[in-house]
Automatic annotation (TrEMBL):
Annotated protein name in UniProt: 12574_t:CDS:1
Annotated Gene Ontology cellular component terms: cytosol
Domain Alcohol dehydrogenase-like C-terminal per the UniProt entry, residue ranges: 30-128
Source organism: Racocetra fulgida
SUPFAM superfamilies: NAD(P)-binding Rossmann-fold domains
Keywords assigned: Metal-binding, NAD, Zinc
Presence of the UniProt keyword Zinc in the record: yes
Cofactor needs: Zn(2+)
An annotated GO BP: formaldehyde catabolic process
Taxon lineage: Eukaryota, Fungi, Fungi incertae sedis, Mucoromycota, Glomeromycotina
A GO term, aspect molecular function: S-(hydroxymethyl)glutathione dehydrogenase [NAD(P)+] activity
Length: 164
């Protein structure tokens, strides 16, 4: 969806399975090549201000993978004026709305949404499966636990708790 270019600055909001996949896609062929981890709780000021300072003006691309509408706005505001792109991947709760000041967009930032990474399922999904089978995509890195089918409820409880 974003067509991240070499040497671009990228921030991923939310590093679960989707966020880690975004990192992998942004830095292939490196292995999960995140260079910095920034925890918003470690700062008194808004995370977008921290990221703008870290990148000397803002990021080229941000990917919001949490579904949190406040994070969606922060991701847009962390983008560089003039060319920054913010891609929303996370799914917000039903009925939630996002908003921003028009200034954020008229200064050249772009806000996009993405489902399934923008791939065309019928024609492009087989290639992604081939990439996995040929070890070009390292999906197995995301497996933290294995459950039997009859333990599916326990698996979902663990996933929702964040204690994995």
């Amino acid at each position: 969806t974003a067509d991240v270019q070499s040497n671009s600055t990228v921030a991923v909001f939310g590093c679960g399975g989707v966020g880690l996949s975004v990192i992998q896609g942004a830095v292939a062929p490196k292995k999960l090549g995140a260079t910095d981890f920034v925890n918003p709780a470690d700062f008194e000021k808004p995370i977008q201000e921290v990221l703008i300072e870290m990148t000397d003006g803002g990021l080229d691309y941000t990917f919001e993978c949490t579904g949190n509408t406040s994070a969606m706005r922060a991701a847009l505001e962390a983008c560089h004026k003039g060319w920054g792109q913010s891609i929303i991947i996370g799914v917000a709760a039903a009925g939630e709305e996002i908003s921003t000041r028009p200034f954020q967009l008229v200064t050249g930032r772009v806000w996009k949404g993405s489902a399934f990474g923008g791939i065309k399922g019928r024609s492009e999904l087989p290639g992604i499966v081939d990439d996995y089978l040929n070890k070009k995509l390292e999906v197995d890195l995301y497996i933290t636990h294995k459950f039997k089918l009859e333990e599916i409820n326990k698996a979902f409880e663990l996933m929702h708790s964040g204690d994995w």
